[in-house]
Amino acid sequence: MALTTKRAAFFDVDNTLIRGSTIYFLGRGMYQRGYFTKKDISRFVLANLRFRLTGKENKDEIQRFQDAATDFIGGHNVKDIEAIAQEIYDEYVSPAMWQGTIDIAQALEAEGIEVYLVTAAPEDMAVLIAKRLGLTGALGSKAEIENGTYTGRMNGALLHGKEKAIAVTELAKEKGFNLSECFAFSDSNNDLPLLLCVGHPSAINPDALLGLRAMAEGWPIHDFRRARFIGKAISPLVVRLAALGTWLTPRKRRG
């Protein structure tokens, strides 16, 4: 009897599964609950923005974001943050998800393919998202914990760029996945190492560079932003046309 090849699919999260930044939603929710000040959140948002603009080349910006991403939960009880994360998922994360991406992930699960989220966001939040969607698991940046409390330091490297490929390769060795038969999905050219380490890469809501690379390589491209934009644009137009049609329809004379 031939052995069945073990396969998995790996999904980036921010702007691939979710419109926006997972860690920003977490920070926003914590700010609204009084965990830190406007100054704290402004510093965090600035680090997040600078990282997204320059993080690919600039190691200093990656370090700044890495520090910001863990410092704001430093000193807080793990159980408390887990409870808040559940609320934040319902308030901000779930409404921001791309249904098209969820459909792809769940269809792969239905075929017996294990599905993992792979993100620079805190792994605890990524695991929560995976569980709520019924996916296999998640890989994320690990925040250091001592005596049930976040220290504000990272445990290992930020899961960004080539670090995603390294983490996925290690998981494949552990689980026995054949990476040449595996799938990966991302919106960002920064995730090329992840996309190139599997046999079946795909782009979802790709940035300009990844879109060009995907077209050149013949990779599947899914752009759910366009469908959402068209839907938003058409709805008001349909209403206006319907109103115009009513206005132009000749009225019946009384009598």
Task: Please name the defining characteristics of this protein.
8 strands; Rossmann fold; two-stranded antiparallel ribbon; disordered C terminus; 255 residues; HAD-like_sf; single chain; alpha/beta; 10 helices; 53% helix; six-stranded parallel beta sheet
Distance between the termini: 85 Å
What is the number of domains? Answer: 1
Number-wise, the strands total 8
Runs with pLDDT <50, length 5+? 228-255
Under the CATH scheme, which class?
Alpha Beta
SS-based class: alpha/beta
Q: Look up the CATH topology.
A: Rossmann fold
**Number of helices, where a helix is a run of at least 4 consecutive DSSP H or I residues:** 10
The CATH architecture would be 3-Layer(aba) Sandwich
Radius of gyration: 22 Å
Strand order of the largest sheet: 3-2-1-6-7-8
| H/E element sequence | EHHHHHEHEEEHEHEHEH
